[in-house]
Amino acid sequence: RHTRTAAELTRLIGSPYLKVLYDVYHMQLNEGSLCDHIRAYADQFGHIHVADAPGRHEPGTGEIHYPAVFAALEQAGYRGLIGYELFPKTDTKTAVRAIMAD
Fold this sequence. Notes:
Elements: H1 3-13, E1 20-23, H2 24-30, H3 34-41, E2 45-50, H4 66-75, E3 81-84, H5 92-101
Parallel strand pairs: 1-2, 2-3
């Protein structure tokens, strides 16, 4: 439920095979302060899931400011994969355009 709990656990275990799947949508709902948590714990992220909140649609359809989220990930040195786990608000083509704009 919380980034800190997951990241501290993976740091404690210290295995390169155990990382946090950081789900931006869920973390916005659960705790907010996305960029602060990314800066503090991105070294423990193994994969990122992206969807906007509310509604779990493509970036730009909700309250999450994705340019700031992506900038925080870049500044924190995250080089892993980002997966878009969302429900297109209108259609897939429009959602893909929004994703590619990020």
